[in-house]
């Protein structure tokens, strides 16, 4: 049977009139093709289906794909039906040269390709829908559905635009590829060592095809996957700022800290955050395929869906304030970091919170491929991909208030905290050892609840032609085609706002019948049975703690109860029942849409390409160009009419791009290839960046805002590689260069908003921007000095002279990425007997980059390396894998370190010092292990370990001081696979 291009996904969505029109046009053309093709039937050479088994078989097939592709490509191939080398797609891809991953709760989520995060995730060559522009998150799609995953680093004109680093193309098994009926089942238990939870993981695949003679051949396959895991992440972090040098030895003379510009680094706001997430993922895939008896083509129909559900239970224990007091053991360390000191007058803010996003992602497609004549192939496809996400976030916060009768003079309970530097997380103690557990000093502060619904849908229609005989010997083929897309993105936000306002700081705003504040202490009978004392016995067991740390034990509202937002609302309703903040109705009755956060985007694209395949015996080339027209409309709420309907204002931005590309392969000899590639690529800004809607935090301190006028990223890239293949392996080297134009930079402004007078939280007063004139926004960013303090900020707030710090993405200058990739793979079959089962797969990447402001690009490690060492025979497989990456710039303008920069100016002004607010992720390595035993041809038992050595993550400032420690579960799994 001649195999077709692998098809795409069809998702369930409500068809609007435009959907039906597109669908009808595509379907009409597809159904007319069998008759055309029958008239020009010709014998086609069958494509061999290679069955891959084992580690070496998988690597060898990946090398074959790399060798025979006209592009610069690397691939991961399933070692057996439903078994990628790693259970997570992102974690499998990190074994490829030039690929690093980003993890969430220790689980691989997204990839960085050659140091660039703006990549594209495709499924069988078609776009997918996800939380943003790039497509579905890689941890949301089951690896058991896939046969191969390609990482395409040099594009061709026929490929969908939108990838700056590379395109990840996930490929599933097509029904007509099956040579016999298939049933494959996998059952696995995964243990996470922090939550001490064992998660069930199940997957199943069934497929077959039937030959009906003159009626053709019909095939069907279905995949199911289920996972319900519970995982945890522990984080410990501080605020770091710069202060004028002080006397720390008590001799009356200011000591030189060795820090920049006469400043020392001060740590405050110690925070312990421990989050547990339950992630339940259910996925299915259904593929139907039909081909006529002539085998001249096929029609396919694909359905795919993933549902992510679950919840989060999290605690954040923070202290703020306090003045530095040196001790006899105080000293200055690297770049002026002060060690071992007290903070006099600090107070704690315990928080229980939950922030989890559920999603339904679907992708449907109907398509066809036909040989119209001996030399003309035609394909068409209509697809619709959709992602519906619901983010639900709640907070139940406490405040340290000393117990008293109703009064207008509430007293904050403060204490002295003490830092002790050592290995791992600092020791940290309070003079009042019960500051986090004594109910006499903790009251209910506030309750927040919000939901953000995001809907992202793309319809796509494409037509492609392939001409294989154009009358010129050295032109092997000419491809041309067109693609049309229509994408709708919408985001709506609702906040709990009973009586027209939030419950922010209700402890000092809600008054009783006598006009006095009467906060509820946490031992009040109303709260009976809702609080718990938390002291996890495995907190930070990877990083280690330097002695006692009092932030590890705390008495808080039970996070499991917070998952039920309706029940928590009813509890808060009782707390405020006899105050002027009394609430009526249900939680749903009091959820108010934030019209200022509303986002609505429509984007239409039209693409046309021409692609030429040239063949000069030892030299082959693919060149051509892709022309794209983009039409964008971005709408926000201008006003609300008398009937409560939104009145929108819409901004428009249209632009054109022409993307030429060239891929050349030269066969030096039968074993060695040289490749050269050059291309222009583009990536449109993400949807949040394209909307002028404001997204402001609950504290009214910071926010973000986009712009529909943003140009896309545009990159010109060049690649040169050398690949040498031998019987049992591969050696390759590649150099790459990317010239990035239309960079986006973060512009900052101080937004005037009248709501700050009553609603702004000044606890973190050092992060609040100050206005020169009340009610007038400004681009200049000013903060209060240490000498002015919170009292100054509170006074400015009362007169309307505090603003909201808004970050806005704007187009900047150009930058570069350049680097080198080295790879080596070999199975040592030349060794005798037992030793012939050993093999190695290793690679190294060097990448150097620069932004217009002189900083490196985000997420790019200068050095990274991966190595897999394995041994296998016919029945047994063992593999140990190690991946390592160097220090890299993880984020910029980070709130907790926003005034720390190389120049020591103690300002958040990135124009004065572009390095302020830089946060680096320190070098880190991780060891993973896997083993399997094929009991017989049908049954295999296996075991896996992820992050075997429990390597934590450290984040540092521009001056090299650690401000954030993070660690997640080690994960161990055992299971059984069956194939019939």
What keyword list fits this structure?
single chain; 980 residues; mainly beta; 22-stranded antiparallel barrel; five-stranded mixed β-sheet; 43 strands; 51% strand; disordered N terminus
Number of strands: 43
What is the distance, rounded to the nearest whole angstrom, between the alpha carbons of the first and last residues? 22 Å
Largest sheet: 22 strands, antiparallel, barrel
Portion in beta strands: over 45%
- Averaging pLDDT over every residue, what do you get? 91
Uncertain segments are: 1-51
Percentage of helical residues? under 10%
Q: What's the alpha carbon Rg, rounded to whole Å? A: 30 Å
Mass-distribution shape: globular
Classification by helices and strands: mainly beta
Helix count from the secondary structure assignment: 8
Please write out the topology.
Layout: H1 17-39, H2 54-68, E1 73-77, H3 89-93, E2 99-104, E3 107-113, E4 120-123, E5 126-127, E6 146-152, E7 167-172, E8 182-192, E9 197-211, E10 217-244, E11 263-291, E12 297-320, E13 323-332, E14 338-371, E15 376-399, E16 415-420, E17 427-430, E18 443-467, E19 475-496, E20 531-534, E21 554-557, H4 559-562, H5 565-575, E22 591-593, E23 599-616, E24 619-640, E25 646-667, E26 672-683, H6 687-690, E27 694-696, E28 702-705, E29 713-726, E30 729-741, E31 744-751, H7 756-759, H8 789-798, E32 804-811, E33 815-827, E34 838-850, E35 863-872, E36 876-885, E37 888-891, E38 919-921, E39 924-934, E40 939-946, E41 953-956, E42 962-968, E43 971-979
Parallel strand pairs: 4-7, 28-32
Antiparallel strand pairs: 1-6, 2-3, 4-5, 6-7, 8-9, 8-43, 9-10, 10-11, 10-42, 11-12, 12-14, 13-14, 14-15, 14-16, 15-18, 16-17, 18-19, 19-22, 19-23, 20-21, 23-24, 24-25, 25-26, 26-29, 27-28, 29-30, 30-33, 31-32, 33-34, 34-35, 35-36, 36-39, 37-38, 38-41, 39-40, 40-43, 41-42
């Amino acid at each position: 049977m001649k195999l077709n291009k692998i098809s795409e996904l069809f998702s369930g969505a409500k068809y609007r009139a435009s959907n039906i029109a597109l669908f009808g046009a595509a379907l009409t053309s597809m159904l007319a093709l069998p008759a055309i093709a029958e008239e020009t039937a010709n014998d086609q050479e069958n494509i061999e289906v290679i069955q891959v088994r084992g580690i070496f078989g998988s690597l060898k097939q990946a090398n074959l794909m790399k060798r025979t592709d006209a592009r610069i490509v690397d691939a991961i191939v399933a070692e057996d039906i439903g078994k990628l080398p790693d259970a997570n797609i992102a974690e499998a891809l990190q074994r490829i040269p030039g690929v690093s991953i980003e993890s969430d709760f220790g689980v691989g989520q997204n990839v960085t390709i050659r140091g660039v995060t703006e990549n594209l995730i495709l499924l069988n060559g078609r776009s997918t829908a996800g939380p943003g522009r790039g497509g579905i998150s890689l941890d949301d799609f089951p690896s058991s559905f896939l046969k191969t995953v390609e990482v395409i680093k040099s594009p061709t004109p026929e490929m969908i635009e939108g990838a700056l680093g590379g395109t990840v193309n996930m490929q599933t098994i097509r029904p007509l590829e099956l040579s016999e009926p298939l049933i494959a089942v996998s059952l696995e238990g995964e243990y996470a060592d922090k939550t001490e939870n064992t998660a069930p993981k199940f997957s199943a695949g069934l497929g077959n095809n039937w030959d009906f003679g003159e009626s053709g051949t019909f095939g069907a396959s279905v995949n199911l996957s289920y996972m319900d895991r519970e995982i945890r992440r522990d984080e410990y972090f501080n605020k770091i700022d710069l202060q004028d040098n002080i006397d720390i030895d008590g001799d009356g003379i200011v000591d030189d800290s060795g820090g920049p510009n006469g400043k020392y680094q001060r740590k405050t706001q110690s925070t312990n955050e421990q989050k547990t997430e339950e992630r339940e993922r259910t996925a299915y895939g259904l593929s139907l395929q039909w081909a006529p008896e002539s085998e001249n083509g096929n029609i396919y129909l694909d359905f795919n869906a993933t549902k992510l559900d679950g919840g989060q239970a999290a605690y954040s224990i923070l202290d703020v304030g306090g003045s530095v007091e040196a001790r006899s053991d105080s000293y200055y360390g690297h770049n002026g970091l002060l060690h071992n000191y007290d903070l006099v007058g600090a107070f704690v803010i315990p928080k229980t919170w939950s922030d989890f996003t559920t999603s339904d992602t679907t992708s449907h497609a109907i398509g066809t491929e036909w040989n119209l004549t001996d030399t003309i192939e035609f394909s068409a496809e209509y697809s619709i991909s959709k992602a519906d996400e619901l983010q639900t976030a709640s907070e139940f916060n406490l405040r340290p208030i000393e117990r008293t009768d109703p009064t207008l003079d509430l007293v904050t309970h403060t204490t002295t905290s003490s830092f002790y530097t050592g290995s791992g997380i600092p020791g940290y103690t309070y003079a009042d050892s019960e500051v986090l557990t004594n109910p006499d000093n903790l009251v209910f502060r506030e309750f927040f609840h919000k939901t953000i619904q995001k809907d992202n849908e793309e319809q796509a229609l494409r037509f492609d032609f392939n001409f294989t005989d154009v009358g010129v010997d050295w032109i092997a083929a000419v491809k041309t085609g067109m693609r049309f897309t229509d994408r709708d993105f919408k985001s709506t936000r609702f906040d709990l706002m009973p009586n027209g306002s939030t419950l922010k700081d209700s402890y000092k705003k809600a008054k009783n019948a006598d006009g006095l504040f009467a906060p509820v202490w946490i031992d009040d009978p109303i709260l009976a049975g809702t609080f718990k004392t938390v002291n996890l016995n495995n907190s930070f067991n990877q990083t280690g703690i330097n002695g006692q740390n009092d932030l590890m034990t705390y008495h808080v509202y039970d996070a499991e109860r917070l998952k039920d937002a309706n029940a928590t609302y009813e509890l808060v309703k009782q707390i405020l029942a006899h105050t002027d903040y009394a609430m009526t109705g249900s939680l749903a009755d009091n959820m108010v849409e934030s019209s200022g956060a509303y986002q609505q985007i429509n984007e239409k694209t039209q693409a046309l390409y021409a692609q030429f395949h040239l063949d000069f015996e030892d030299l082959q080339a693919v060149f051509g160009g892709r022309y794209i027209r983009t039409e964008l409309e971005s709408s926000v709420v201008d006003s609300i009419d008398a009937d409560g309907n939104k009145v929108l204002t819409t901004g428009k931005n249209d632009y054109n791009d022409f993307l030429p590309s060239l891929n050349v392969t030269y066969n030096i000899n039968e074993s060695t290839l040289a490749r050269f590639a050059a291309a222009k690529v583009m990536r449109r800004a993400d949807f949040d960046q394209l909307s002028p809607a404001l997204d402001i935090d609950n504290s009214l301190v910071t926010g973000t805002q986009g712009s529909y006028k943003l140009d896309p990223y545009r990159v010109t890239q060049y690649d040169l590689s050398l690949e040498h293949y031998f019987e049992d392996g591969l050696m390759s080297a590649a150099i790459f260069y990317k010239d990035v134009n239309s960079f986006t930079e973060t512009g900052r402004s101080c937004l005037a908003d009248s709501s700050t007078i009553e609603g702004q939280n000044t606890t973190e007063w050092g992060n609040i921007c100050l206005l020169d004139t009340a009610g007038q926004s400004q681009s200049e960013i000013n903060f209060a000095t240490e000498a002015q303090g919170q009292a100054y900020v509170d006074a400015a707030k009362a007169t309307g002279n505090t603003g909201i710090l808004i970050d806005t993405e704007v187009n900047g200058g150009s930058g570069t990425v350049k680097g080198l990739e080295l790879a080596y793979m070999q199975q040592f079959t030349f060794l005798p007997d037992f030793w012939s089962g050993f093999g190695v797969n290793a690679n190294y990447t060097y990448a150097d980059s620069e932004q217009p402001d002189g900083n490196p690009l985000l997420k790019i490690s200068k050095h990274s390396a991966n190595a897999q060492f394995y041994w296998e025979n016919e029945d047994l497989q063992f593999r140990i894998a190690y991946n390592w990456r160097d220090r890299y710039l993880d984020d910029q303008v980070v709130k907790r370190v926003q005034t720390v920069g190389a120049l020591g100016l103690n300002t958040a002004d990135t124009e004065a010092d572009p390095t302020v607010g830089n946060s680096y992720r320190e070098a880190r390595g991780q060891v993973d292990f896997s083993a399997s035993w094929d009991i017989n041809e049908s049954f295999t038992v296996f075991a896996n370990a992820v992050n075997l050595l429990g390597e934590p993550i450290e984040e540092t400032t521009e001056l090299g001081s650690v401000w954030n420690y993070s660690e997640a579960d080690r994960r161990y799994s055992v299971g059984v696979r069956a194939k019939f």
